[in-house]
Amino acid sequence: xxxxxxxxxxIFRNYSAGELQLQxxxxxxxxxxxxxxxxxQIDLETLHFSKANTxxxxxxxETMQLNVESTVFAHEGRHAIDQLYFKAQFDSMPQxxxxxxxxxxxxxxxxxxxxxxxxxxxxxxxxxxxxxxxANLRLRIIIVQWMQQxxxxxxxxxxxxxxxxxxxxLTDQQLREICLEADPLSGKFSPTP
Length: 193
Hints:
Layout: H1 6-13, H2 22-27, H3 31-39, H4 51-85, H5 87-92, H6 95-109, H7 113-121, H8 131-149, H9 172-182
Helix pairs in contact: 4-6, 4-7, 6-7, 6-8, 6-9, 8-9
């Protein structure tokens, strides 16, 4: 366990239990605390936080870890793989296709695919005039088309509610399967005519 530096400790100590907000630490550029929190290296009990704040910070830590897992390692990792092993293809494909492939990886490799979806894909850039927005729109269309074709495999589907509003009914495995079927890098890809 790494100890927090004196400056970091002062930042934590100066907040009462009811006032501590992770965002405040980040806004104060408490880089070490942020890094330690991401890496799970803060022993919250030794910082004398209340149980509620300990749970709050544990939740934030887990959320940040899952976010980094999907958006940094899977998403950016996919860009690196495409550039290294499929350079000619990568260089010639539209930017929204690059982003779409990276978004497949976010879902496929996430330990919580639904959370990966709600982060940068459904809860992120929805402006279809941007590169990420175009990729997000394309992925939403792929998911809805899959849901239409596999209606009988989705428990509790309600025909009176738009499919996109019922994404929560998909299992993590179904979300992975959707992306695997659409991803040209997987062995399951079959191009549409």
